[in-house]
Amino acid sequence: MTQQPETPTSAGADSSADAGDVDTLAVAVAELRPALEAILMVSDEPLSTVRLASVVGHPVDEVEGALGALAAEYAEQGRGFDLRSVAGGWRFYSRPEFAGVVESFVLDGQQARLTQAALETLSVVAYKQPVSRARVSAIRGVNVDGVMRTLLTRGLVEEAGQDEQSGANLYRTSSYFLERIGITSLEELPELAPYLPDMDDLEDELASVASLDTPAAEAAPTVPDAPHHSAHHSPHSGSGTEPDGGTEVS
């Protein structure tokens, strides 16, 4: 008689299935809050609730509740950090009252940071987006190609399609920009009006720029008896080009 090969017993199959279940549930049976803290501690970007739920193996609503409870707990205990929902995800941030200490630590020995020109260009993009390079250059009065390349390289600005009329590339701020300044959406940007110059100062600045753009041969003759006013030249006025690509060395 030919002996049939043995087939796996049901008990063996059940053991294999049980082993697989143990491996699958190994994370899920872990305590939820410590697991979330450990993941958020090593993440270098905001993590969505859905992604966190898939990692820890708990339902999304439970994860959402645990994150909210952790955030409230940290605030109540006066920790040196907060857990915030920013740019569509959760991440740890240092508390505002310790900004001076953190800034001193972070900037100590830092070699490169954005120049004033780059910050001004980034502000124009933030408030005018989507906007073309030509439009940014017109607003700032200088060629901003080098600075825009720096902002693109650092991930603070990204392409946002093309202008229908001119075909020029349009740019907008990125989610990394929101993350860096600690807001959830562009609606949280401060109102621009309080920071605008007075009309008298603006008229003087425009007159100064106009006089600099006027060819010498066409300039009006100076009246000898008229009081002399020295023209103020803004470092970011005229049709020049930024002296650098938007990065300065400390």
- Quick one: CATH superfamily of one domain? Winged helix-like DNA-binding domain superfamily/Winged helix DNA-binding domain
Just give the CATH class of one domain.
Answer: Mainly Alpha
Structural class by SSE content:
alpha+beta
Using the CA coordinates, give the radius of gyration: 29 Å
Separation of the first and last Cα atoms: 89 Å
Going across the major beta sheet, what is the strand order? Answer: 4-6-5
Total of DSSP H or I helical runs spanning 4+ residues: 10
> From N to C, what is the helix and strand string?
HHHHEEHEHEHHEEHHE
The residue-averaged pLDDT reads: 75
Strand residue percentage? 5-15%
Binned, the helix content reads: 40-55%
CATH architecture of one domain: Orthogonal Bundle
How many E strands? 7
- Sheet with most strands: 3 strands, antiparallel
> Are there runs of 5+ residues with pLDDT below 50, and where?
1-29, 216-239
State the CATH topology of one domain: Arc Repressor Mutant, subunit A
Tell me, briefly, the overall form: elongated
Account of the protein in words:
This is Segregation and condensation protein B. InterPro entries: ScpB_csome_segregation, WH-like_DNA-bd_sf, WH_DNA-bd_sf. Keywords: Cell cycle, Cell division, Chromosome partition, Cytoplasm. Pfam families: SMC_ScpB. With 250 residues, the chain is of the alpha+beta class. Among the domains are: 73 residues, Arc Repressor Mutant, subunit A, CATH 1.10.10; 92 residues, Winged helix-like DNA-binding domain superfamily/Winged helix DNA-binding domain (Arc Repressor Mutant, subunit A), CATH 1.10.10. Helices cover 46% and strands 12% of the residues. The protein is built from ten helices and seven strands. Strands 4-6-5 form a three-stranded antiparallel β-sheet. The protein has a two-stranded antiparallel ribbon with strand order 1-2. A hairpin with a 6-residue loop joins strand 5 and strand 6. Helix 3 crosses helix 4 and helix 6 packs across helix 8. The longest helix has 18 residues. It is elongated. It starts with 9 loop residues before the first helix and ends with a strand. The N terminus is likely disordered.
